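S1.2 Input.
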Amino acid sequence: MIISVKKIILLLFVLANTPAIAQKNIEDFKVVDEYVKSLGKLDTLNMGTITYIVTKKFQDSKDKARAIFDWIAYNISFDCKAAKKNGNEKNNAEDILKFRKATASGYAALFQDMCSVAKIRCLTVDGYFKNNIDQFTEKPDEFNHTWNVVQLGESSETWFYVDPTLGSGYTDDKVTIYTKDYNDAYFFADRTIFNYQHMPDNKAWLLGPGSKSTSNFFSMPLVKNAAYEFGVSNFLPNDGFIKINIKKAVSFSFKASNSAAIDIVALAIGEDKKKKIKTVDHTYNGGMVRFSYKFEEENSYPVTILINNKPVLGYLVEASE
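S1.3 Output.
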């Protein structure tokens, strides 16, 4: 599938903020993570051999899947040039291992192939990833991302999301600069938060509640990587594009399952050199964080909610008289 450069600019993959890492996952998979990291690049080896070496110490399928995720995230980089040239077109495993680069579909295909070698049932899922405030008003015409679903049992509760692309790092907004940064939040990811960010082309691959339509999906706020760290959900406003009167304050709220870790809540208003950080007074009650803010300047600008200086939710605010 070929996607235009314009659509690439809105690529799924971009989350230009410091990725959050779930502490629980680090502890659960510490042995796996350290072993895979110790293996290094495994240059010159084919996919089957790499898969065998990476997974041979582990009996549990979940540990094997984690080992595969780790090796890909540690050793494969996002190919910005290929993304702009070919969109989300699939890369073959041989080329990925040779050049150690891939687009999102290549990451997902490699993860699936390695899982198949390890006898783990895994599928690739095409769909949308929302990462840009422009998508509130202009959604991509075609699918712009690919991820994986892993099955470890018969019930729906034994199916899990994996996004090896976002697990490996992130790019800038223009998809020109890639930063390698391992992020295990995208291994067996929290379903609620994952579904805020991803929408499959086939709702059969929607694990748990999700958007009812593409329009609804793209109308919601941007959910950033750090949302996993703080367990952010149930946010208000639930429209990402906010039109407000400068005389009236906007009420914000969201559920945070990891509220004990929240020290500072702030808003980043504007972008680049014009960006201003405004710390806000917030309350926490019944699992909900609440605060309000009055936008006093007439303009349209991006607004990002920060927890401990980490971006969790993004809006586009249009303030007028």
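S1.4 Remarks. Confidence is low (pLDDT under 50) at residues 1-24.
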